[in-house]
User: Which sequence fits this backbone?
């Protein structure tokens, strides 16, 4: 009964967080580009991204997405106190949420170059993601839990590695015809994220570029036995600048249909696999 109640509570929290995350992301794109059509396309591509259904599943993706968007938007408006609180929550929701501190630092530097001196709360905002992760690790230690690295290896067979090592091993598995079908889809999404990452460099602000690439490299610094890039398609959901780029690319009806129909077809396939207890992330 306790496990069922926990699952139900997680599901409710995920769905509420997903709704607010989508609304907040829409507002962020409007703030940045003053373009409602771009905002609509960006949200559409996020929702129908092949692993977009994880935003409604009892995972931490929707909550981490919400607080990461909130942290950036609050920093953009120079509300450093709430940006720090959001950054703290982000690092508690997902370990890679600590990277939000880099985004906040880059945003403060951008504002400083524009003659806008950050308030004293900037230091608070910059420190809070680090405090959040440190607090979580300290709690685990004093509670007697094993290290996270041991848990990841024991239950999910995950180990740390250098970025892109998992991609190279996946390619080797494909040449040896030992890769499973889901690995081809995971690799396709990783390749898409890398391509979109280069467009982020040229089209979006430096803070978003720094956040995007540090988060992507962090994600790719994991290796799962025996499927090296397993879950990368799900981790891609938190790379929110990619969806802004997709929104920019979908300006023509042809491009819009190409992106949306491809995503929706894969969404149906992966959601079906997930419902039938298939491992898709």
Assistant:
């Amino acid at each position: 009964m306790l496990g069922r109640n926990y699952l139900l509570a997680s599901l409710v929290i995920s769905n509420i967080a997903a709704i607010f995350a989508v609304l907040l992301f829409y507002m962020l794109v409007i703030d940045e580009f003053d373009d409602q059509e771009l905002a609509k396309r960006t949200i559409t591509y996020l929702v129908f991204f092949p692993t977009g259904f994880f935003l409604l599943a009892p995972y931490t993706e929707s909550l981490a997405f919400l607080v990461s968007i909130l942290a950036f938007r609050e920093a953009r408006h120079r509300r450093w106190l709430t940006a720090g609180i959001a950054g703290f929550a982000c690092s508690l929701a997902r370990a890679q949420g600590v990277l939000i501190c880099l985004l906040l630092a880059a945003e403060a530097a951008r504002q400083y170059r524009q003659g806008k001196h950050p308030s004293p709360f900037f230091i608070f905002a910059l420190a809070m993601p680090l405090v959040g992760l440190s607090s979580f690790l300290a709690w685990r230690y004093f509670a007697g839990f094993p290290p996270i690295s041991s848990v990841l290896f024991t239950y999910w067979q995950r180990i740390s590695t250098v970025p892109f090592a998992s991609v190279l091993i996946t390619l080797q598995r494909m040449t040896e015809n030992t890769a499973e079908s889901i690995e081809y889809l995971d690799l396709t999404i990783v390749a898409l994220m890398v391509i979109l990452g280069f467009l982020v460099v040229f089209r979006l602000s430096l803070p978003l570029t720094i956040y995007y690439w540090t988060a992507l490299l962090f994600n790719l610094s994991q290796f799962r036995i025996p499927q090296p890039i397993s879950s990368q398609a799900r981790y891609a959901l938190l790379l929110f600048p990619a969806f802004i780029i997709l929104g920019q690319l979908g300006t023509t009806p042809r491009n819009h249909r190409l992106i949306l129909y491809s995503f929706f077809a894969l969404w149906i396939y992966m959601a079906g696999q997930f419902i039938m207890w298939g491992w898709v992330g």
Observations:
- The beta strands are 158-160, 222-224.
- The longest helix spans residues 2-33.
- The chain has a mean pLDDT of 92.
- The radius of gyration is 19 Å.
